[in-house]
Amino acid sequence: xxxxxxxxxxxxxxxxxxxxxxxxxxxxxxxxxxxxxxxxxxxxxxxxxxxxxxxxxxxxxxxxxxxxxxxxxxxxxxxxxxxxxxxxxxxxxxxxxxxxxxxxxxxxxxxxxxxxxxxxxxxxxxxxxxxxxxxxxxxxxxxxxxxxxxxxxxxxxxxxxxxxxxxxxxxxxxxxxxxxxxxxxxxxxxxxxxxxxxxxxxxxxxxxxxxxxxxxxxxxxxxxxxxxxxxxxxxxxxxxxxxxxxxxxxxxxxxxxxxxxxxxxxxxxxxxxxxxxxxxxxxxxxxxxxxxxxxxxxxxxxxxxxxxxxxxxxxxxxxxxxxxxxxxxxxxxxxxxxxxxxxxxxxxxxxxxxxxxxxxxxxxxxxxxxxxxxxxxxxxxxxxxxxxxxxxxxxxxxx
Length: 399
Known about the structure:
This protein is α/β, with parallel strands linked by helices. It folds into two domains: about 15-155 and about 340-395, ATPase, nucleotide binding domain (Nucleotidyltransferase, domain 5, 2-Layer Sandwich); about 160-330, ATPase, nucleotide binding domain (Nucleotidyltransferase, domain 5). It is about 35% helix and about 25% strand. The chain is built from 13 helices and 13 strands. Strands 1, 2, 3, 4, 5, 6, 12 and 13 form an eight-stranded mixed β-sheet that branches. Strands 9-8-7-10-11 form a five-stranded mixed β-sheet, sandwiched between helices. Helix 1 (about 55-65) packs across helix 2, helix 2 (about 70-95) runs parallel beside helix 3 (about 130-135) and helix 6 runs antiparallel to helix 10 (about 275-295). The chain starts with 12 loop residues before the first strand and ends with a strand. InterPro entries: Anhydro_N_Ac-Mur_kinase, ATPase_NBD.
């Protein structure tokens, strides 16, 4: 039955998706054309890019992370500076969209994710004041997309479950979508209900160790790790972390896997660990914890995305530990280095059309919820009629 004032089909909407991940290296931006076609969302990518943070801003963000203290003055400045950086990225997105867009969706920059020792999420803070984005583009902005899920009893992460469940709905068997950012997370599609959770560190400890050793942001292409040997005494200590045995849904971040954490573990190793061996061991940690999670979920295929897939040493270690195909998401139509920005665009599109954006089986929320807050653009805020029902699949169209 078609309900008055509700729609089953929509006109195409050009959404700019923005996010900066836990690596804090810059703002990912994607321009995406989305349209609801019955129970399917048609998705056409118009382009994606990364706009690096200014060096000083990235250093300030990293310095504000736990266990450091961040004053109200620092938080205000960072919220403004990140908002301005996101506004710059949104203008790049307008160019990617051919000079015209309808909406911006921002997942912001996570600065703190409050999870109690028992695994209960109590709050989450994403900065990047959306007023700067609206002012620069004149477009309405959907932002603060995680908080409602947390208020509903969820983890607020990983939200990518909604994209993965729609995108991989027609794949046979159990497919695991893997994202390797600062934190690695998986979505399990093909069972009774989608499941998603953070498996543990992705690049977070690797990048931290690389910076401590070389002063650079990362171990590019895993070159240093490739010269080292896995220290199994260190690996055993790392794997003893209780997070890996906590039941899903669960989430984590740099509040836990940070410099103090790494220093504490290294202090417990009987003999010193040199740089190459440290990076080799941390690479193995990520591969091992991800592979263990994929096997536990009965994965028949793994589709990987995120910055970690650009590390051939990490990807090879993961493939060694899995006896199922490990694809890169580009092979199924979504760019590995732009997938999370596409997620942001999808979340904004869902909110804009009155549809829920969380997946309770993935986050642990008490039920489906519409996500985010909307900041008006240059003109009056005019939302379209809400959609009749939730979509069941997402079809990626050729660009």
